[in-house]
Structure formats: C-alpha cells, structure tokens
Amino acid sequence: MARRRLGRGLDGLLPATPPASERSTKNSAAIEDLHPGRMQPRGRMGAEGLAELAASIREHGVLEPILVRKRASGGFEIIAGERRWRAAQQAGLKEVPIFQHDLGDEAAFEAALVENLQREDLNPLETARAFQRLVDDYGYTQEVIATKVGKERSTVANALRLLKLPKDVMDLVEDGQLSEGHGRALLSAPSVSSMKKLARSAVSKGWSVREAERQARRLARGDGGSTAPKKAGKSSNVRDLELRLSRALGSTTKIHESGKERGQVRINYASFDELDRVIEKLTS
Q: Global pTM?
C-alpha cells in the first residue's frame, strides 16, 4: 500500500485541475533563467554522478521536464530537478524543458521531497532533516508525513531519531561510512563521547549493525557489560539530563549534585574549536 502511494509521485501532490492561481504549463526556458530552489531537501550532489548525467544529457537531452515556479524577481525557481539542471549546464545546453506550477512553499517542499525519495537521491540525514522541517515549519505529525511520502510511520520516526546523534556521527552516516542502521544502534550508548568512540570503532573495524548494537548495549549497562550489583549512583533523571545536555551541546556534559537542588554542570571539550561551538550554542 505504501509503495503504491509513493508510486503516484508528483501527480499525487499536484492537483489534476489546479485553480487559476496554480496553473501548470509545459514549456522550455533559457538555462540561466532557472535558479536553485529554496525548498530543495538535498544537500549533496556527487560530482561523479553529475558528470555521468551530463554525458547522458549530451547524448539524449533532458528527457523529463524540470518542475519550476515563477520568482517574484524574475525567472523561475526550481522545485524538482535541480540535479538535471546542473548536469544540463555541464553538458552545454542553452535551454531546458520545464513544467511550470506555481505552488506555495508547503506544496513545493512536499513535491521536492517526494521526487528525491522516489529517485533515492537523499541520504538518511537529508531525509531526516526534510521530515523535521515538515514538523517544524508546517506542523505535520509523523502520521501525516508518512501519508504524504508513502512510508510507514515507524520509518518516519526512525529517520527522525538520527537527528539525536552527535554531529560527528551524523557526518559519518551522511558520508556513507556508517549506515542508517548503525546510527540508530549507536543511540543506545550512554553518552555523546561513547557514541563518537563506538562510531569510530564501527568504521575502522567494519562492524555490522548487530555488533554496533551489542557494543552500545554493553556500554549502556556499564562496567563492560557486567551484571554485578553496582553502587548507588546518579538518579535516572540526572543521567537523562546529562545525556540530553550532551546531545544538545555536542560535548560530554556531567552533572555533579552537591546538595538538595544544588550542584554543578561540567562541560568537557577536546579542542578550542569544540569549545567555540559549545559557547556559540549556549549564547545563541
């Protein structure tokens, strides 16, 4: 069922008979009249893949029109097809086929997201950020997002969980050194520093997702996975606060209680660059 919803593609988001304010027209436009879209969820476009597409376009042309909308300052903003447009530039084309549809920001972002998901052009972090944007900017629930993009709600929830990873670990997932499954497995580690350490080990040692899960659970239990009774320590509320602060700041943070409702917060940093990032987050 979900796959069929996604298979409708942009047709599922673009009304068959749009109102007068949202007319669709097929045409062509000078390549310099097109501009990258503000609604583009994709952050990275590999140079090698772009070169391959450019070679194909030299041979066959741009077979699928680029979806655009008018810009108030002139020309067109690309909603879907920015990669084709960039490849067409590399191929030396002077104009490209366009499909003009004057959508609002919300519908334009949905259309761009669906096209990228269909083509599997987004990495896991780009998908997660796009879903989060639908939540933050348009108030979508996970259920609504799932319906819009033709995914299960659990798939959307799992994607959003990746945004809780430290930036260093997110970069490894985004670069393809770790899979989405590795990223979710590392979330069960007890601290930001342990997530980073496990992530480096997973890359260098070629861990499977199952091994990453096992190592994260081992650290979460403490004492190298020992099941022996442990001394009474910090409450679960304090440990949870430490983890939330560490994730928010991107550095290991410890809370030391010195009395009733009194204590200290200690933030560890490994370099002045990391300290600068922490200060920026605290003062922004």
A: 0.53
